[in-house]
Amino acid sequence: MKIGTRGSLLALAQTDLFIEAVNRAYPGLVCEKVIIRTAGDNIQDRPLAEFGGKGVFVTEFEEAIRQGSIDCAVHSAKDMPTELADGLSIVCVLPREDPRDVLVVRRGTDLAARQQAVIGTGSLRRRAQLAACYPNMAFAPLRGNVPTRLERLRAGEYDGIVLAAAGLKRLGLAAEEDLAYRYLAAETVIPAGGQAVIAVEGRADGTQAFLSRLSDSRAAAELETERLILRKLNAGCHEAVGVYAQVGAPTGTFRESAKDVICIRAVREKDGVLLRQELCGAAGERCALARQMARRLSMGAE
What we know:
Elements: E1 2-5, H1 9-25, E2 32-35, H2 39-42, H3 59-67, E3 72-76, E4 88-93, E5 101-106, E6 117-120, H4 124-133, E7 137-140, H5 146-154, E8 160-164, H6 165-170, E9 179-184, E10 198-203, H7 217-233, E11 241-247, E12 261-270, E13 273-282, H8 286-301
Parallel strand pairs: 1-2, 1-3, 6-7, 6-8
Antiparallel strand pairs: 3-10, 4-10, 5-8, 5-9, 11-12, 12-13
Helix pairs in contact: 7-8
């Protein structure tokens, strides 16, 4: 099985996690990594929203799958557009890592003591939510792979940077001695849809149905819910939207057991105002809840 992947250390680490799962389930299946460079990899001097949004990390893989040069592709789910190419689908979803964002600073840095703290992030979602929590923050663009971003922080280009906890943990970079990490609660800074989820894209004709055996049902349900909300909102990289669905979230408002409950938190910024919404209900009704959430966010943004 030829598996498409980007060439960054994080992409390769995530692909290795998928291959390990394949090897456990199908010991006789030989996996080969095929590294593909995307438009998002080639263009590093501009924000994603300026040259195509989320599709810049996916289009080349979809073409390779359709041409047959690879069988499937491993993606960070948050990088995937809400509409996939015709004939393709998500065929496997691995267990979710920590979905939170992390504010990383050089050890000893006191951001609160600074009149203005320069924070590196290219995410409109992160900027909008952090600005509401920390009025003294100013934001500067930041792109590149995770190790490169950390080196730019160490070099003093920023007072702090914001990264996904999942990427730091998968790369073993969540405990660097010269750095300090502030994990931002998902209730305060709502993650991007699909954050911390590894999704495998393949053909939708059933030929790769065997990979569904590897899927984590909880992560798959959360991802389906988040992607449905984003699709209904037509939200990409061009506006500040966060959405996080949590299956098994504790709640006292439903009689179902925790594993049968899903809680959805979402945020959308419009004209400088943050609209936050939360819904909980039966996990089996997640699609209806997702549509309701999208309606709330649309109405509030009008």
